């Protein structure tokens, strides 16, 4: 279909057949190489920090900081704390920290309490359905959590740490918890919309997709609140170790809006700008 | 309907594909997951998309087809893609590229695709089917804010007739590809 217009744009037209390489990304890495390099970067990161580390005294943090505000807060924390457990900074740290601490509490429970907790978490699958998730999409992750509950009575803190350093187990539980949080937001839209509304028309769906469902995107305040509300059996305290004024770190506590358990776990995370570890009081 | 999942081997047996990565680590779980995805794809048989492993021996390298959506410049055309799954799939996105030469604002001349769900918005709940459907809708709804192919983006915005012409100049029938 030739038209008069074609002669005017003739030069552009011929160039459409012979592409100017400088207009495009031409650095050719084949897909196998891309995956290998990605894996090497990951392995390098993994060699530095395990997914879930050993419990350490808070004073270890003092070696990391020269800043006096930080040091004062660390010293103040040390008084009321037994320590912290470092979590790998891979964009999933808050989720992994919460999930590990959740199972660490559960591991200390009696078998019938573990069974009760398991049935509580498994019953939340209906929330996933209500939120519109397809069973094919979530079943593998839910089953991994279920199977971890089943192994739990036979585990010690040490072997639980090993379980969480297994990428598959850890990742599946994280995805499950992410989906529970996203499902909670989606099924409580009226509570969350005012916080999501950024004036640019971001929808609940887009928010959940970008901030919660996306694997390796760090949890924000809203995501943590949704996680605590969805799980319903744990309070979450976030100890903020930042440069804000004062000698004591600010603690923000999330409590479930409708708590199903009278006795709730007390999960604490230690937040330093951009990263979460587990905090032990 | 030669490109549906019911006929996996048709037309593709002579393709030369890269050797996929040796996925010794976590191999069992990714294999199980991909097998179940393959099963779901075959059962659901969604029109306009298909995908299957290149060989029985390596489940981590797939090939797929996407039919251009109706009412877009791609209507009536079928494009071939390659999918390479990492050993830690679904926690990491597969690497996907167009094997067919593609004229599109978000696809470069090597077939690399710029699509957020394959990068920073990747979620473990996505699967082959949702990826294929997202790619299919990307054909009709390019993101012209950050194009890989600036000329295509410009044509899409300003001259749809030129866009269609460039698209057809690059297009290769899927059967021709298989003969190469």
From TrEMBL, chain A:
Protein's name according to its UniProt entry: ubiquitinyl hydrolase 1
KW Metal-binding (keyword) present: no
Enzyme category, top tier: hydrolase
Top-rank taxon: Eukaryota
Region (Disordered): 1-22
Catalysis: reaction(s): Thiol-dependent hydrolysis of ester, thioester, amide, peptide and isopeptide bonds formed by the C-terminal Gly of ubiquitin (a 76-residue protein attached to proteins as an intracellular targeting signal)
Keyword rRNA-binding: no
Keywords in alphabetical order: Hydrolase, Protease, Thiol protease, Ubl conjugation pathway
Ranges where the OTU domain occurs: 82-281
Species for this entry: Myxozyma melibiosi
From TrEMBL, chain B:
Annotated active site: 114 (glycyl thioester intermediate)
Annotated transmembrane regions: none
Family annotation (InterPro entries): Ub_conjugating_enzyme (IPR050113), UBC (IPR000608), UBQ-conjugating_AS (IPR023313), UBQ-conjugating_enzyme/RWD (IPR016135)
Domain called UBC core: residue spans: 29-176
Alphabetically ordered keywords of this record: ATP-binding, Nucleotide-binding, Transferase, Ubl conjugation pathway
Database matches in Pfam families: UQ_con (PF00179)
Domain of life per record: Eukaryota
The family this protein is said to belong to: Belongs to the ubiquitin-conjugating enzyme family.
Protein name: Ubiquitin conjugating enzyme E2-C, Ubc11
UniProt organism field: Myxozyma melibiosi
């Amino acid at each position: 279909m030739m038209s008069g217009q074609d002669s005017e744009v003739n030069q552009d037209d011929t160039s459409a057949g012979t592409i100017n390489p400088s207009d495009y990304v031409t650095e050719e890495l084949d897909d196998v190489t891309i995956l290998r390099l990605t894996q090497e970067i990951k392995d390098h990161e993994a060699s530095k920090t395990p997914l879930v580390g050993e419990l350490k005294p808070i004073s270890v943090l003092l070696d990391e900081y020269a800043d006096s505000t930080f040091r004062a807060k660390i010293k103040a924390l040390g008084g009321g704390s037994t320590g912290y457990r470092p979590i790998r900074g891979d964009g999933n740290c808050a989720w992994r920290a919460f999930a590990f601490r959740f199972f660490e509490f559960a591991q200390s429970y009696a078998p019938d309490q573990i069974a009760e907790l398991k049935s509580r978490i498994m019953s939340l699958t209906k929330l996933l359905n209500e939120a519109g998730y397809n069973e094919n999409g979530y079943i593998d992750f839910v089953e991994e959590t279920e199977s971890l509950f089943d192994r739990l009575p036979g585990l010690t803190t040490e072997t639980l740490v090993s379980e969480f350093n297994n990428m598959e187990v850890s990742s599946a539980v994280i995805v499950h918890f992410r989906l529970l949080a996203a499902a909670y937001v989606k099924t409580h839209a009226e509570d969350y919309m005012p916080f999501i509304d950024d004036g640019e028309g971001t929808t609940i769906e887009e928010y959940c997709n970008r901030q919660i469902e996306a694997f390796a995107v760090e949890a924000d305040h809203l995501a943590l609140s949704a996680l605590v509300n969805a799980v319903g059996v744990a309070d979450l305290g976030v100890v903020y170790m930042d440069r804000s004024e004062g000698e004591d770190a600010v603690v923000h506590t999330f409590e479930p809006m409708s708590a199903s358990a009278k006795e709730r776990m007390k999960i604490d995370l230690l937040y330093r700008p951009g990263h979460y570890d587990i905090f032990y009081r | 309907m030669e490109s549906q999942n019911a006929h996996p081997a048709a037309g593709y047996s002579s393709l030369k594909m890269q050797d996929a990565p040796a996925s010794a680590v976590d191999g069992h779980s990714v294999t199980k997951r991909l097998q179940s995805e393959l099963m779901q794809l075959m059962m659901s048989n969604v029109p306009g998309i298909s995908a299957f492993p290149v060989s029985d021996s390596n489940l981590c390298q797939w090939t797929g087809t996407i039919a251009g959506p109706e009412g877009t410049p791609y209507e009536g055309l079928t494009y071939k893609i390659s999918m390479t799954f990492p050993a830690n799939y679904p926690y990491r996105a597969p690497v996907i590229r167009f094997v067919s030469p593609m004229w599109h604002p978000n696809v470069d001349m090597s077939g690399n695709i710029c699509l957020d769900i394959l990068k920073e918005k990747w979620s473990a709940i996505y699967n082959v089917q949702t990826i294929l459907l997202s790619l299919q809708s990307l054909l009709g709804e390019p993101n012209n804010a950050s194009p890989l192919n600036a000329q295509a983006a410009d044509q899409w915005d300003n001259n749809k007739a030129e866009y269609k012409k460039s698209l057809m100049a690059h297009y290769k029938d899927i059967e021709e590809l298989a003969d190469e």
